[in-house]
Amino acid sequence: MHEERLDSHSVHCPYCSMPFDLLVDTSQGSHQTWEDCPYCCAPIQLRVEVSPLDDELTALTLGRDDEVL
């Protein structure tokens, strides 16, 4: 993980709808991962899409753990 490639994004938990800032690591390229909500501790599924041309974040999708992203 490269700290200079961590981008902060304001998102809302798909369970409790609370807003929070999420740090996204674009150095891994496009990937899927999970992050726990800092308020309700529910597991949030994340799909991170990164452009292969310039390593910029092109899409960030959040979903419940039981959703297919």
UniProtKB/TrEMBL annotation:
It comes from Billgrantia kenyensis. It comes from the Bacteria. It holds the Pfam family Zn_ribbon_21. This is CPXCG motif-containing cysteine-rich protein. InterPro entries: zinc_ribbon_bacterial (IPR025990).
